[in-house]
Amino acid sequence: MPVEFQFDFDRTLSAIVYLASKDLPELTKAKICKLLFFADKLHLVKYGRVITGDRYCAIPYGPIPSRILNLLNAVIGQDPREEQAAKMSAALELDRHYEHPRFRATQSFDATKLSQSDLMALDQVIANYGKMGFGELKAITHSTFPYKKAWIEKPEGTNAADMNFEEFFEDDSDAIAGAREAMLEDDELRKTFPVR
Known about the structure:
By secondary structure, the chain is mostly helical.
């Protein structure tokens, strides 16, 4: 059974607000999804866990965090029925002057929700990819091993496939020895002793 993490809305919201407070150019929902993919991947291969806990899917535009994409879509669509989207809307503002609305933070990120290693990963991703446009980010994410493997192996006739966290470690020079094993051990413990 593939490795799964528990989606952490508070940590995710803090990570998105952190990104949205950095004056990154063209910070659309697609760019947020790409930057979070890089941050989750970097944190996973170094520390054995992701920041957001979201599940990643391979779609034609590259890897996307599925729950986060749904929340960002709800924010853009101003859907008040989704409680987490309403909280996200309160922390972000949208510039709707563009075909793809751009996000800015309206409040400070909650530093108590992000660890020092979370912030390190986010800062490294901002430094490496923050100034890039969607086309560049799409090309880079399409070249990653976990995306390529999921896309090649997707069920015939579908436009999406789940990505496996185990494959985030393949062909990654940032991977630290023991991080994959720690991830697998923690996953086994979560499945054996689920939180009630």
